[in-house]
Amino acid sequence: MSNTYGTVYLVGAGPGDPGLITVKGRECIEKADVLVYDYLAAPSHLAHAKKGAEIIYVGKKGGDHTLSQDGINALLVEKAKTGATVTRLKGGDPFIFGRGGEEAEVLIAEGIDWEVIPGVTSAIAAPAYAGIPLTHRKFTATLSLVTGHEDPEKENSNIDWDAISKSGTIVFFMGVRNLPNIVEKLSACGKPADTPVALVRWGTTTRQETVAGTLSTIVEEVRKANLKSPSIIVVGEVVSLRDTMKWFENRPLFGKRVVVTRARKQASGLTSRLMALGAECLEAPAIEIQPITDSAAVDDALTTLTAYDWIVFTSVNGVITFFDELFNKGLDARALGGLKTACIGPSTAAELKKYGIGTDVLPDSYVAESVVDAFKDQEIQGAKILLPRAEEARPVIPVELTKMGATVNEVAVYRTTMDTTSTEKVAEALTNKEVDMVTFTSSSTVKNFVSMIPNGDLSLMENVTVACIGPVTEETAKELGLTPHLVADTFTIDGLVDTIVGAAE
């Protein structure tokens, strides 16, 4: 075998929920020079590919293959023979109706090293997320996994219908189109007409949809629901447990499509919270955080820190960019050793704590006015205060602290600019009425999001809930013609999420 060949990893990406990929599977994505992925592999996995990796989509959507299986096999061989590490990312498990065995055979024939990384199969995961345990000691001790793709016109079927009809639980993969034939075959083999049946579409994702019935009614129920692929079909008495065991679809935001406009680096926290509550999130960063470089004011502030009595941080971004600049100057947290600190909000204080520094002043409310109120208990007459924050921030803090006798040096350490990378995505979602809610975490996110609305047509927001992190953001939304429906009582991400959930309950 040539030492110049790369290794191919056949990786099961799991059934759709990105969290269900294995640790080893994630590692294979991270180290791949070439990543070849399927329609059913969660797109979020691609974010873990290393910089410069070649990412190739090969489709494999029912009836619409971007590349044939023979083409995929040839592609894997071609890329591996260049010496590249190739990760073949497949939905579910590669060796359970995933044609991974065929790909492995080709790699073996070509003398290419390969490994298979099993994945969580949708046959197990989709029913579990629908509240259906495939085995249960009160109902069954047998389980059959069957392809639902088999052509009903085939002269000789590979499926032993007599045998599987006697199985306690039967799971059919991708069998929506053949559902009438499946029902007919099972009924002909003696499966009782009142046997419970359920179909789970897009199992484990926020688009999950479940339709239940019996062997005699399920075809009509699916027709009425207009259920399509990809779906798993479950036949057996265990389906009856769904009435009491369904949990995934009971979450308060299940099925809601929410646009998260927060900056890209910060969006994941809010997105993960909303997804855990059942929402389908569209990350569409409206702003991008950029440090202010080559600023004489920043340099002067950093080299004269000992001249200040206080430093006031008004945001997480302010903390991060300030310390980035501090470290770039060859300094560290010891440079703030003699200063007292104040923060707007617990998130800002928590970020400051990461650098080993606590906060001396933390106001009860998390807006600029509250910082001013908190300083009324401090002796700041004649004090020198450093205020590192965003460019073009509200003037409340420096103006009011100056009135109280302090000398305030307001230094811009970052600016928010418009992130246009999601404009097309937002426009399409709004036009297609695919948005239930938009979350705003700052005035900048509101301003930039509004500019993404196609032709400025605010009527596209008529049935969209507008959720704001606080009164300042709310006021900006009103000024720009939006109608805020939800405003957090506590002006933090947690407060915003709590308000959204409270309205949904």
Task: Describe this structure as you would to a colleague.
The protein is built from 18 helices and 20 strands. By secondary structure, the chain is α/β, with parallel strands linked by helices. The protein has four domains: 8-119, Tetrapyrrole methylase, N-terminal domain (Cobalt-precorrin-4 Transmethylase, domain 1, 3-Layer(aba) Sandwich); 124-248, Tetrapyrrole methylase, C-terminal domain (Methyltransferase, Cobalt-precorrin-4 Transmethylase, Domain 2), CATH 3.30.950.10; 257-286 and 419-504, Rossmann fold; 290-417, 3-Layer(aba) Sandwich (Rossmann fold). Strands 3-2-4-1-5 form a five-stranded parallel beta sheet, with helices on both faces. Strands 6-7-10-8-9 form a five-stranded mixed beta sheet, with helices on both faces. Helix 14 links the parallel strand 16 and strand 17. Helix 2 crosses helix 3, helix 13 (368-374) packs parallel to helix 14 (396-403) and helix 16 (443-452) runs parallel beside helix 17. The longest helix has 13 residues, at 264-276. It is elongated. It starts with 7 loop residues before the first strand and ends with a helix. The model has no long low-confidence stretch (mean pLDDT 90).
CATH class of the largest domain: Alpha Beta
The largest sheet is: 5 strands, parallel
* Overall mean confidence score, pLDDT: 90
Helix content: 25-40%
The CATH architecture designation of the largest domain is 3-Layer(aba) Sandwich
What is the rounded distance between the termini? 62 Å
Query: Major sheet: order of its strands?
Result: 3-2-4-1-5
Describe the global form: elongated
- Structural class comes to alpha/beta
Topology, number of strands? 20
Q: Which regions have little confidence, pLDDT < 50, spanning 5+ residues? A: none
Total domains: 4
Oligomer: single chain
Query: Number of helical segments?
Result: 18
User: What name is given to the CATH topology of the largest domain?
Assistant: Rossmann fold
- Radius of gyration (CA) equals 28 Å
State which percent range the strand residues make up.
Answer: 15-25%
Pathway: Porphyrin-containing compound metabolism; siroheme biosynthesis; precorrin-2 from uroporphyrinogen III: step 1/1; Cofactor biosynthesis; adenosylcobalamin biosynthesis; precorrin-2 from uroporphyrinogen III: step 1/1
Family: Belongs to the precorrin methyltransferase family.
Domain Tetrapyrrole biosynthesis uroporphyrinogen III synthase: 271-497
Keywords: Cobalamin biosynthesis, Methyltransferase, Porphyrin biosynthesis, S-adenosyl-L-methionine, Transferase
